[in-house]
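[Q] Does anyone have a clean structure-token version of this?
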Amino acid sequence: MIRPLLSLGLLACAAMVLALGLGSVTVPLPDLWQVVQGEGSALNRTLLMDLRLPRTLAAFATGGLLAVAGALMQVLLRNPLADPYVLGLSGGAAVGALLAMLAGMGTLLISGSAFAGALLATLLVFGLAHGTGSWTPSRLLLTGVVVAAGWGAVITLMLAITPSYKLPGMLYWLMGDVSYARTPWPAMVVLVFSIVLIMPLARNLNVLARGPMQAAALGVAVRPLEWTIYLLASLLTATAVTTAGSIGFVGLIVPHMLRLVLGNDQRIILPASALAGGTLLVLADTLARTAIAPEQLPVGVITALLGVPTFLYLLHRSR
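[A] Here you go.
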């Protein structure tokens, strides 16, 4: 159990070192080590400590949040195609955050609005999927896809009526852009808090993955556990969207690939998702910064290029 987490931790550290060193201005490893020791030139210290390090930590936290949210949703629905992007949570959070931005609210209120939008999307998806009977994972997934399309239409309408001077930042934010992250620490705190909160429930999640009836027969309080997953996934998604905008497919790719390698024990999958998701987004953001340097691509473009073929492959396998 410890060995794969240790390997992923070392890989995450290597990805962060790579992200700090690469860019429009390359910082060699000896110069990077001097900055870590509090030495080095003032230009390198400013470049690394004030610009690249906050962005790298924000990318890591955002990727970890999305991957853990995706892992929780896949356990809940027992479907590898479930993630916050597909189920409409990201769209709801984006609508809430954009409304707050249009109203000129501060960062804290934008975060609260994003959480409210993600929670509303969760309630809407599960309410519509439930209907007059009980919901099934496939019905819930299809409902989530439709609701996500509805959120997309709302976002398009908001962009159409937005003043032109606000459009560039909003468009980059919607495509997912870590460069707009003001500080990584709220996202890091939420990521650590969520892992600490969910790890004691990992055994119950292993049982829930076999089905709610089996879990109830084994003494698991199914409904409270499901609502805990709903609320926690909404919080994780809202924090990620507030930090770096709408970034898709991280919650789809990472948990599923980890299950192929590590099995389906949530005691390993959840912390491994945080590490692997953060590493993936750090590497994707590094590629977005360096592919056409000095110009930068939105990191959401890179994750979409990776996620779309993966999604189609998983959809083909689930037939």
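[Q] Thanks! Anything notable?
[A] The longest helix spans residues 42-77.
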